[in-house]
Amino acid sequence: MRTPGKPRKPRKLANSKIEQSQGGVAPINEMRDFAQDVVPTALVDTEVYIDDADSIESIMVVHQNKNESVKPAVQPVELSERLQERRAERRRIRLKQFGYVLGAVSGLLFLLWIIFFSPLFAYEYHAGDIRGLADNSIVDKNKLADVLKSHNGEHVLLFDDEELQADVKNTIAEVDRISSVYRFPNGLAFDVVAHVPVACVVDGEDCQGIAQDGTKLTVPSDQLASLPKIKGFPEDVDRKDAMTALMSVLDALPDDFRATISQLSIDQHQMVQLTLTDGRTVAWGKSEENDRKAKILASLLSLEAKFIDISAPNAPVTSN
Hints:
Layout: H1 17-21, H2 56-66, H3 79-116, E1 130-131, H4 141-149, H5 161-171, E2 175-183, E3 187-194, E4 199-203, E5 206-210, E6 216-217, H6 221-224, E7 229-230, H7 239-252, H8 255-258, E8 261-266, E9 272-276, E10 281-285, H9 290-300, E11 307-309, E12 317-319
Parallel strand pairs: 1-3, 4-7, 7-8, 10-11
Antiparallel strand pairs: 2-3, 4-5, 5-6, 8-9, 9-10, 11-12
Pfam family, one: FtsQ_DivIB_C
Protein name: Cell division protein FtsQ
Keywords: Cell cycle, Cell division, Cell membrane, Membrane, Transmembrane, Transmembrane helix
């Protein structure tokens, strides 16, 4: 193993030139004096500072004289007072909300009272309330007006047409239908449909007008003369069934041909016979296949036959 050698001997460093020139000591750098600008400071108010010997009361008096608008110190609010204020504010909010709700409900109730219970919307009859009737209508307008006047005071928005229909039918048979139409603000108009007389049932010297459904009508004499006459019914014939059969025959005929019928009759076998205004006779037969018989009769009327038998529509017969 190799033995380590001896360390080298330290070498003395040479002195710098400054040390050599100054006797081995480095000189201290000296600061030169330079001329500087002077900035004057602001004047200091001695009253702003409080010395230990000054009195706080005297300082407050001086400041109060200089500025009278200085406010006193705000006293701290206790927690209980703050809670009371919050509770009072909540009560005010609740009362305000309750007032709004109460006002809205009151307004709604008042509006409902005006619409449904006040006399503002109560009906009162006027002469122009009846519509749909011709000048020569068989309906007695004075009777109809009396029925409508009996409904004065009823609420126009709650008017019952069914009740009115029943009242009118019990009083005026000539009215087929009646309905009301609201007119702002408190008026009603009534659309009336009258029965149309289709025949006149002869009973001795009198003749009773009837409608298509068999309703007996009061018909003026000038209109009765133009209606087909129905002779008296046989004793052994059910009057209701016989009337139904005759009405079925008339219903199958066109309006222009119906006006040419002067008389209808039915026997105990439910056989219908027509007498025309020109004297010709049509044996209709039973009230069966009425639409087909009406078409056959329309084609045979152009013939000069005085008697037309269509009781068997498959084999019609004509004769002079």
